[in-house]
Write a structure and sequence with these properties.
- The protein contains three helices and 22 strands.
- The strands form six sheets. Strands 4, 5, 9, 11, 17, 18, 19, 20, 21 and 22 form a ten-stranded antiparallel beta sheet that branches. A three-stranded antiparallel beta sheet has the order 3-10-12, with no helix packed on it. A three-stranded antiparallel beta sheet has the order 6-8-7.
- The radius of gyration is 34 Å and the shape is elongated.
- A hairpin with a 2-residue loop joins strand 17 and strand 18.
- It is about 10% helix and about 35% strand.
């Protein structure tokens, strides 16, 4: 989504006069229409499917459960770390139409057949949630002709959500207490900036301890390359960026765990963008943790102006033509009338 944030910059000239500068920061949202998510598996596990879905042995909701009932899950296949257990797919944002089975099978389990259960939730903002912003200064954009902004002059921010550190179980009937994270000393506004795709502050994070969905992500930008931004007559018409990033996974209540880092890329081509991050690693007590980020979307360029309309042509009125012989007869007729009129007078 293409949006603009403008501020008035005041510059003092050497003569002491004050003039308004024309430069303004312009932010391009990495929103949608979009699909994809950041998802983690082999982090929150249970020996049974009822256990991972927060149910008791009768299949009923268990208020004292230690599962993740609002996330999809699958059984880890033979040959993978923690084989045989059931693991939650901690995806953010969620959609019941996401093809978790194929993606996780190919990326992490050698193409093994996976059956994903409990994929029931589609977030209302699944297709529009912004992954961050690309910001540039429009001072060098000229109103006519072609102008460019280099990749080095573009600021990429993928940590746009200010999280206050609070984690509260949201599942009805859950008797466990809430958790105030290490950044919640004074409430909202005193937190840290994290990826909007962090599940820790969503209503689907059932619980706050290690092994639940109390995860947050910070995404670092390592390099920004490519042709940059192209403008035609002052309008953004093309984007070409190859961005190296690193997704760092943190477990909210346990700062001493450090982070598990996954390198990847963000490519922006014309009107669309694509994240490509995947990997497996170990963080403290969690081994074989899988992370996948495949968010992609469109709508980065402003809508094209409609072509100018041409007013309808006025209807032409046919000019009657006169046969030459008819003209001769008409002249003779007028002549005879004139002679007769003369003879009478």
């Amino acid at each position: 989504m293409y949006t603009t944030f403008r501020t008035l910059a005041i510059a003092c000239a050497l003569s002491g006069t004050v003039t308004a500068a024309h430069a303004a920061p312009v932010a391009i949202e990495l929103g949608g229409e979009a699909t994809g998510f950041i998802a983690v598996s082999n982090f929150k596990n249970s020996s049974t499917q009822d256990g991972i879905e927060g149910k008791d042995t009768n299949g009923d909701f268990n208020p004292a459960h230690n599962g993740l009932p609002e996330y999809p899950n699958y059984q880890i296949p033979v040959g993978s770390t923690n084989e045989g257990v059931f693991t939650a797919i901690i995806a953010s944002p969620q959609s019941s139409e996401s093809d978790y089975a194929s993606l996780f099978s190919v990326e992490f389990h050698g193409g093994a057949n996976l059956t994903v259960s409990n994929s029931l939730i589609t977030q209302s903002d699944f297709s529009t949630l912004s992954a961050g912003t690309l910001t540039y200064d429009d001072a060098n954009v000229i109103p006519t002709g072609t102008s460019t902004i280099a990749a080095a002059d573009i600021s990429v921010d993928l940590n746009t959500f200010e999280w206050d550190g609070n984690v509260t179980p949201e599942v009805t009937g859950d008797s466990r207490s809430s958790f105030d994270g290490p950044f919640a000393e004074s409430g909202a506004g005193n937190g840290i900036f994290v990826s909007p795709f962090s599940p820790v502050f969503t209503p689907y994070n059932d619980g706050s301890g290690a092994g639940n969905a109390a995860l947050y992500y910070q995404i670092a930008v390592d390099s920004v390359n490519g042709a940059g931004l192209t403008f035609t007559d002052g309008v953004l018409t093309d984007i070409d960026l190859q961005i190296d990033i690193e997704v760092s996974l943190f477990v909210a209540p346990f700062a001493t765990f450090g982070s598990l880092d996954f390198p990847g890329t963000l490519n922006v081509d014309g009107d669309s963008y694509t994240f490509d991050v995947s990997g497996t690693g170990t963080l403290a007590i969690f081994s074989g943790v899988n992370l996948l980020m495949n968010r992609q979307g469109t709508g980065l360029l402003p809508p094209a102006s409609p072509p100018p309309t041409t007013p309808p042509a006025r209807p032409t009125v046919p000019v009657p033509t006169l046969d030459p012989w008819a003209l001769v007869l008409l002249i003779l007729l007028f002549a005879s009338v004139a002679v007769a009129f003369h003879n009478r007078h």
